[in-house]
């Protein structure tokens, strides 16, 4: 019993924990408002480029989730992968990866799917998945884990995007995966020089 008294809970990944906290508040707010707050603040869709809300939603859409299953699925992956990535790359870099992924998925949705509202952190999750496959990168090598993750995850999204008719934005997953793979390679090439 004495050993338990010395254990303390640490705030080990502020960016990841911040995403989870804001996503929880956004999901609760969306549920309580019958979807109104989600549509106003936590979904991205084609709207006027002169509206400040269009630009705000380009980043905040990652916090909104369609339902609790969507929320729990995304947050589980973020909590699993995020702390390791935040420790390796730092909080500001991981925040940057998140922001770039949010904006890129919003932009692609805006251009290619004018009648679709996009919400959720799935693009960020896929960026983290591909980014994590570079954690043991060495100069002049491409990790087999990266190749397999890319084939399995991106391949699955391509197949589902072609054959499945569901409400899942496979393009956000693909864009997030491409960003995570590209940045993972770039970050690790720079550290190896």
Write the layout of secondary structure elements.
Blueprint: H1 2-5, H2 14-32, H3 36-41, H4 52-60, H5 68-89, H6 91-112, H7 122-132, H8 144-163, H9 170-192
Characteristic key phrases:
193 residues; mainly alpha
Structural class: mainly alpha
Tell me the span between the first and last alpha carbons: 49 Å
- Gyration radius, to the nearest Å? 18 Å
- Put simply, the count of helices is 9
Tell me what the CATH architecture is. Answer: Up-down Bundle
Relevant CATH superfamily? Rhomboid-like
CATH class: Mainly Alpha
Topology-level CATH name: Rhomboid-like fold
Spans of at least 5 consecutive residues with low confidence: none
Give the tally of β-strands: 0
Mean pLDDT: 84
Q: How much helical structure, as a percent, in the residues? A: over 70%
Task: Give the strand content.
Answer: under 5%
Bulk shape: globular
The major β-sheet equals: none
Task: Give helix and strand order, one letter per element, not per position.
Answer: HHHHHHHHH
Number of domains: 1
Q: How would you describe this protein?
A:
With 193 residues, this protein is mainly alpha-helical. The protein has a single domain, classed as Rhomboid-like (Rhomboid-like fold). Helices cover 70% and strands 0% of the residues. It is built from nine helices and no strands. It has helices at residues 2-5, 14-32, 36-41, 52-60, 68-89, 91-112, 122-132, 144-163, 170-192. The longest helix is centred in the last third of the chain and has 23 residues, at 170-192. The protein is globular, with a radius of gyration of 18 Å. The protein starts with a helix and ends with a helix.
